[in-house]
């Protein structure tokens, strides 16, 4: 592996990947891969996760195609130097910021969006002119095999390598010296990545998870618009990889007196989306593996938690299926309310006053996203100014992931660094300050010996 990395590093030194033509050809290659192999990608996602092709297109392929096109359209602008103003003291110097590639970068990705989370950072890394090693997730083997098999035929295999394997392989890679590590995954492994990066002072971006709350303050009174917002909320949980999404809704907060109405509405919309027998629904993704199935089952079986189930709750270990499940006020210190759920279990926490949700959110680690459904401008302003999260979205869920003009990333324990669109380009670049000086004018007092200005103590 080390020898192979050395070859990639030497290729970077050749300067080929810095050329705009190389970057463009790689972006075109990636676009061709997604277009030519669309059917294979759908099948791989179906095999790994039971994902519907519509969900796969909505959350992965569609976003990737759009973001590759945006990178192609904007590449010349992103690569061009940006003039900087200078203070008078440096007159008549000119200065600009020039983005240069970092070198050889390592991308470690996760299984829940195995194409999106591998290729989205790859777009930024190649647009910025880097060579790349991509370590895919062993938990989505069909997707990982397809990437490892196809990427070398669509992209420059001297510059971009796909490496398959689990934690052992990731650990061996982490011991090597990189110019940047971009990691998507859990907090626990994020710590391992950061410790390994410290060894070589390698910069890291950590795209981690956490518990994303959705505050439901109020909904529109007109049924039609109310149901649209409810669909966005329910889809942000059960309709996005069955809750196995880093920006998915983890739990809902609602005021006590609105809770019975909201719960009834949520039950109705959930049934509308997944039917009376969700196990038969093509829109439900399955749980990724037996380990995660057991983890979710344990969350549900904890003392006092199962008793709080008001909807769903059925499971099938052989099919790795868990029904969309709604719980009301499970014990606040139970694991389901302290650990990231990452599955189709939806706790609803009721509060006397909806304003208390702000204090509750602030008492927890900072989330990757906070969602808030409200018709009250004053309350929305309070949520915006008094809570902190990677992103904040009013009256919808997950949309921020799909907009390449919006920086995507966490804060606090949900990670640091940001990407998508130009933010990806910046994440994989060093912005170098380049100053140009003329020989005149100059000032004698800049230089020693300053003999006439001696100060005695
Ligand atoms: P994970 O941390 O278990 O695995 C992520 C990657 O790290 C995989 O490629 C895996 O092979 C590797 N890995 C696992 N154990 C390792 C170890 N001991 N040493 C080195 N590498 C190791 O996470 P996961 O199960 O793939 O994903 C779930 C987590 O990722 C959730 O917390 C979720 O919120 C988060 N996530 C975040 C984002 C985001 O964009 N912020 C997206 C998806 C998932």
From TrEMBL:
<dbReference type="InterPro" id="IPR016161">
    <property type="entry name" value="Ald_DH/histidinol_DH"/>
</dbReference>
<feature type="active site">
    <location>
        <position position="246"/>
    </location>
</feature>
<dbReference type="InterPro" id="IPR012394">
    <property type="entry name" value="Aldehyde_DH_NAD(P)"/>
</dbReference>
<dbReference type="InterPro" id="IPR016162">
    <property type="entry name" value="Ald_DH_N"/>
</dbReference>
<dbReference type="GO" id="GO:0016020">
    <property type="term" value="C:membrane"/>
</dbReference>
<dbReference type="GO" id="GO:0009737">
    <property type="term" value="P:response to abscisic acid"/>
</dbReference>
<dbReference type="GO" id="GO:0006081">
    <property type="term" value="P:aldehyde metabolic process"/>
</dbReference>
<dbReference type="GO" id="GO:0004029">
    <property type="term" value="F:aldehyde dehydrogenase (NAD+) activity"/>
</dbReference>
<keyword id="KW-0560">Oxidoreductase</keyword>
<protein>
    <recommendedName>
        <fullName>Aldehyde dehydrogenase</fullName>
    </recommendedName>
</protein>
<dbReference type="InterPro" id="IPR003660">
    <property type="entry name" value="HAMP_dom"/>
</dbReference>
<dbReference type="InterPro" id="IPR016163">
    <property type="entry name" value="Ald_DH_C"/>
</dbReference>
<feature type="domain" description="HAMP">
    <location>
        <begin position="53"/>
        <end position="80"/>
    </location>
</feature>
<keyword id="KW-0520">NAD</keyword>
<dbReference type="GO" id="GO:0005737">
    <property type="term" value="C:cytoplasm"/>
</dbReference>
<comment type="similarity">
    <text>Belongs to the aldehyde dehydrogenase family.</text>
</comment>
<dbReference type="Pfam" id="PF00171">
    <property type="entry name" value="Aldedh"/>
</dbReference>
<feature type="active site">
    <location>
        <position position="207"/>
    </location>
</feature>
<dbReference type="GO" id="GO:0007165">
    <property type="term" value="P:signal transduction"/>
</dbReference>
<dbReference type="InterPro" id="IPR015590">
    <property type="entry name" value="Aldehyde_DH_dom"/>
</dbReference>
């Amino acid at each position: 592996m080390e020898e192979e990395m050395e070859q990639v590093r030497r290729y970077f030194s050749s300067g080929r990947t810095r050329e705009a033509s190389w970057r463009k050809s790689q972006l075109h290659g990636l676009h061709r891969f997604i277009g030519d192999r669309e059917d294979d990608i759908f099948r791989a996602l179906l095999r790994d996760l039971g994902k519907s092709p519509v969900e796969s297109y909505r959350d992965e392929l569609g976003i990737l195609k759009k973001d590759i096109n945006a990178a192609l359209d904007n590449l010349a602008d992103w690569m061009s130097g940006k003039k900087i103003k200078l203070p008078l003291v440096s007159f008549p110097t000119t200065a600009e910021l020039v983005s240069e590639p970092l070198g050889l970068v390592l991308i470690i990705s996760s299984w829940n969006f195995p194409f999106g989370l591998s290729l989205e950072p790859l777009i930024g890394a190649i647009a910025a002119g880097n060579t790349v090693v991509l370590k895919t997730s062993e938990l989505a083997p069909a997707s990982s095999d397809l990437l490892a098999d196809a990427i070398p035929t669509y992209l420059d295999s001297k510059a971009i390598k796909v490496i398959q394997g689990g934690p052992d392989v990731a650990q061996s890679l982490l011991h090597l010296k990189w110019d940047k590590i971009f990691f998507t995954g859990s907090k626990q492994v994020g710590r391992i990545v950061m410790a390994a990066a410290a060894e070589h002072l390698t910069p890291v971006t950590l795209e981690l998870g956490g518990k994303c709350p959705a505050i439901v303050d109020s909904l529109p009174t007109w049924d039609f618009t109310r149901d649209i917002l409810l669909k966005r909320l329910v889809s942000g949980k059960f309709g996005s990889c069955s809750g196995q999404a880093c920006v998915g809704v983890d739990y809902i907060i609602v005021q006590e007196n609105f809770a019975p109405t909201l719960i009834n509405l949520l039950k109705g919309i959930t049934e509308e989306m997944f039917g009376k027998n969700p196990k038969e629904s093509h829109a439900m993704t399955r749980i990724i593996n037996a380990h995660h199935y057991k983890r979710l089952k344990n969350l549900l079986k904890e003392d006092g938690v199962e008793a709080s189930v008001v909807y769903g709750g059925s499971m099938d270990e052989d099919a790795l299926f868990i029904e969309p499940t709604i719980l009301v006020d499970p014990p606040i210190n139970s694991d389901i309310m302290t650990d990231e759920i990452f599955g189709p279990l939806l706790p609803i926490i009721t509060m006397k006053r909806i304003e208390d949700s702000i204090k509750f959110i602030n008492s927890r680690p900072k989330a990757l996203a906070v969602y808030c459904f409200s018709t009250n401008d004053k309350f929305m302003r309070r949520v915006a100014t008094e809570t902190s999260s990677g992103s904040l979205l009013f009256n919808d869920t997950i949309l921020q992931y799909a907009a390449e003009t919006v920086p995507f990333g966490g804060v606090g324990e949900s990670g640091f660094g940001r990407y998508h669109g130009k933010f990806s380009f910046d994440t994989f670049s060093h912005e170098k300050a380049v100053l140009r000086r003329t020989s005149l004018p100059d000032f004698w007092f800049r230089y020693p010996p300053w003999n006439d200005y001696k100060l005695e103590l």
